[in-house]
């Protein structure tokens, strides 16, 4: 997630440089044409850029809206992961009958599950971003469990299966009553759901034909605008066109970047920082000693 | 679902060729008219195309929005099918008391239900697309159950009835406690719901009068724009009009294709690939040997 | 619901004929005026129709959006009715302990409840459309129950009360366990909810002042456009204005018709066809002999 | 809620008369200025009203959208109140074991609770509208309970506390099983929720800076439009400007009125009529004798 | 939250003064340029400001929409906090078996939990606004509990952990039955959820690139409009441009302020006033003596 303070101009410029250079070249070409063949150029009627400008603004607004919705949904999903991770630990602390396992064992057990839940958050973030999550799984899961999880394609799903297996054991030992097991099961089912929702956003390509015609449409608009401006403004048309083009391309790229919030880029949903928040909250609640520091933005974004 | 990399231009062109050819002919006609009867043609006032352009852009934006919403809802429904299929298997693994049926029998039972659930996903996708799902049912269901399902119109519904019947049996044998049965029942009820939601999108025609007037409106706009441009631009009007028309028709067709996500076309929700993902996840979780490969896009789309 | 194939032009024309005739008369009037009193007519500035055109397009887009939302919500409600009717029957089949009532009695009991549920769907559709539902109630309910339902204003609500009464009886006879009764109760509560949601759409008038000013605004726009066009286009203004007017009125009427989806018109939500689908699904699931045919569109719409 | 049939023009006129009179005066002033100081007036460039017209149309569309959403949400909340009031009575009828309290006592008890629920609906409507609800509470609650409710600020909340207290008593007497008590509790929790949702809409002011600049913006637009029209149209500008202004102000006022649906005005959500519907449904279901008539619109609105 | 009555103009002016001063300077500069170098200035074509005006209006509308959605979601979250705080107290009053703890002890216990819940509301509001909540925690929690809560980063989460711990104790003492404990747990889980949702809005920066280009785009539009107006209007261009600029900047700032509803500014969600309402409702329901007064707006906003 980009943060407010330190966004470098170079970042913005890099987003649009290829397109701006193209615009620069065709507007220069039109100027040269005008200079040499002024008489042969048709005069572009004024209503054309107006009509196309309205249309392109609307389709860009549409793209921006739905891209924002994907981005915001991704953030909401991770917000829900925060909530249900916290809830899960509260429920474990409340539900498990200490006298069944003994006070110390219960504490260790909850700690094991808390670590696993924290590991799940980090591992899910890494999975979504296409990163390797082997190290994470070794860090937060005990070896036996890591051995079950690692061979599977969908490692976060396998981690949740371990949660469920432990609930079964607790129920069988009567450390949980049946209501509580069902309640914990509901919490884990919701986590299964969030995982699937994040995967859905990740694997669903924004309609491709749409992406194509928006890009094409912006160029069409700029070319016709350029032809219209070159007559009245002459060479002054070049900087004006470039400034206008930059704005439209910035909107387009902003939208495109918002569409895919789990691709390991600065505009990503900050899944690592969120997982860290969960780790801090849970460890403090359990009064564990090794509470890490929150992740703060290095440079201009939070990873 | 169209994928990012390899969209062929011919695909885009095929979407709009009929309309573009029509535009080509009427813009040529106007040019010939202008050439021979220049004096008799009224001059089209400039504000007309502007007004119509704004209006058509707004109604297209409306169509695009609601078509996108249908498409995204369809994808969400299938995302939920992923989630609750995974949840169902987790619940079965956790809930069933191994000592009632014996360890091996329980394993076989879960495997039977997992196969049936996987079969349900494939069969639902085929039903929605109007394809025959007999082969799928024979592959994933045991013969006795296939015999119950095949004569029915709504085969996926019948498959879920088999799930429910099995839960009843498990409850009667006390391999499930009553809470767990109710919880499993809730999961299956949600699957009934997703099935109905997908059917709803499939069977509800996007308002027809709307479809008619949008198409009619685009032509009206292009004709008036053509009459306006022919005077200032002459023959150059033909290519410009065709490029503009292509953009508007591309928007219209993109929207129309998004409206119906279960019609066995490249723009479909990739139900087969999703069902395959479910199959892989479930089989790996149950540590079964015959895990298939994920479906990858052949050509330019994922089926 | 209008279907794709056979929409007659006469239907579209009937929607807008009154308004189009009015437009025809005032545009003729302006032409005559211009012919005789050309010098006295003020020339309408070009920006006026543009400004009004943008404004009217936006308010029409607003109206279209919210009308579509009402229509789509109505369809979703009926989709949910499909889902929970199917769920209810699945639950009854799964829950009821056959040994309490005996195998045959249980079958008959479920059949009675299934019929009542089917009857509820038809009766609700008829209620919403303001039709008499006496025949339906006599057909699907046993006489004693019909006697309870018929005197009430809200017959569908009374039918659901019969469901609930039967669940109580089953619980008292221990043919249901308490969890299952609560689960069935939740399903019926949802049906109560859908009924109320459909009634809400039916009884809530779309803001009336809004309806008034949209209609007024379209006329204002057309009159000013007409005054603007009459100078440049002369009599040719009449057909052009009529074509433009038709498009705007078509949008307005389409929106108005979508607003009220339960008024026994061709644009209605196809509640009878949906109820029939439910009947077919349920009866096939229970392997009953008298399964009816699905309703197919007669003419150009599905009722 | 305004109804379709009889909306008087005077009502519409009263909404906007102050603003229209102001517009009348400044457009007359501009005409007089033009008559005497024609040479000194600058000519307003044509693109200014176009740009401002687009901008004001978009911000009005925004205001209309979100006002409509508030209004529709208010209506949905009251729809949910209908649904859960009906559900509550169904549940009470189904759940309470008749043999614990005796048949007659049970009947009387349900009747008492039904009256209290009906009273809650009326009282909540009155609370939201800032009306006194003492009479209502005396009418529908028994004196002892009215004594508990009346001193409190939030009377509807206190009424629901009485419901909950009665459930506790029923549970203690074993007239309810624990599942049923929890289910009833969920229904009442939802009612607590709807009450809070309606209060939220009532107490949250639509962003004030927004209201200010929309109003200011419309005047700015009309003044600039007036200056533009006065040159070409002369005195004819006055009626045209007034008609256009009326339309814009009508949109603005319609939106403003929709924003606050519980302020005892004709555009309110018809809470009294809805409460009456609930009363009729519940009393007919319980086969009580004193069923009142539905409320029909007097004049042009339903209160 | 700004209130309707007393919004001072100075507040509005302060929002936009920096930007307006900038606009003042560049429009003066253009006027001076025009005066001295009139012949060298290119004439800005009329369609440019129109096209840019439409585009900037659409992106502003987009920003306004999503900012409003954040603001409204924040208000909804706090509405839900009201609802579930009320529900929690109702449930405690209904569920706890008085005979287990004794009548007086039960009363004291509920009072302690009610105070803690009220404290949670105040403390959450303070946390979100980045204020110190030590005083609040000392006021509403008993010392032993304050000692557990204060060292933690996320104090509201720790307070909810105390709720859960008490439920466990009540269950163990059989003052709650297992159903009721699960129901209370669900209520607290929802509170955990609302807390996380408010934190999500607080910690998620509205897309930064978007913020940058909107600001840049408004300046671009105003500069080009200024260059266009300076030719026809001369020095009169300065006040007109400033008025138009003020409107656009007011829209932009209104949107920016709505985006962040928990930053201790006048446009905040009124979390302190809402927490006070909860305090009043709960204390009156429990018939406690020390009910405070509602918070009324001092100046022009409710804090």
Automatic annotation (TrEMBL), chains A, B, C, D, E:
The protein's topology relative to the membrane is: Multi-pass membrane protein
Transmembrane region positions? Answer: 44-62, 208-227, 233-251
Lineage here is:
Bacteria, Pseudomonadati, Bacteroidota, Cytophagia, Cytophagales
Any idea where this protein resides? Cell membrane
Which family, according to UniProt? Belongs to the anion channel-forming bestrophin (TC 1.A.46) family.
Q: Report the InterPro entries cross-referenced here.
A: YneE/VCCN1/2-like
Origin species, per record, is Adhaeribacter terreus
Q: Which UniProt keywords apply?
A: Cell membrane, Ion transport, Membrane, Transmembrane, Transmembrane helix, Transport
The protein's name: Bestrophin family protein
Main localisation, per the record?
membrane
